[in-house]
Amino acid sequence: MAGIGATQQGEFSLSAIMYSAQSKHAIINNKVVKEGDDIAEGKVESITKNTVVILKTRYAKPVRTVLSLAPITTIKKNVSEDL
After folding, report:
1. pLDDT tens string 8-33
2. Minimal CA–CA distance to 27: which of 62, 48, 59, 52?
């Protein structure tokens, strides 16, 4: 299962999430990342079907950034259903 719907928050741009029982990946700042990867002075803390959490610890108090996919519309497989 994959979700697409680009969103931007601060220095992070989330383009897509590829999520299955076997793997969790996201495209952030045009780079494919997985949980535990470093990105822009932060670390990918978690990936769910709709969100990515990035933890930055360079500050006195850790900062979490939550990126969510923008809603997308459903694409029909067979447009002849409308005819």
Report:
1. 777 888 988 998 889 999 999 999 99
2. 52
